[in-house]
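Quick one: structure tokens for this chain, please?
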Amino acid sequence: MKPTKMALLLLIAACGGKPLPDWKTDPTPEANAKRVDHLERAGTTHAWQRSPYFRIDDRMEPPVYLIVAEDLTACVVPPEDYTIANRGDYYPCPGQWRVARPT
């Protein structure tokens, strides 16, 4: 078997054969999609509480994954989306885009 075919089979097996979500493959971004600037991860409760995107009423268990848009708003995302997001992607936040608290 050629190395290319083997790599493709390993990739499919590693992903569980799941296709990429529409936001990753559709060239037309959704209405609430914003361009990804960078990713952030808060691995502890203390780190999450120090984040400018933390809110007092948050009931999240770390790790907390954030996709930060070019306008510096952020979206709390599932680990699956965090893993495949890249700078320049258009990401449609399933919740609400958060504005950073002043520091």
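The longest helix spans residues 3-14.
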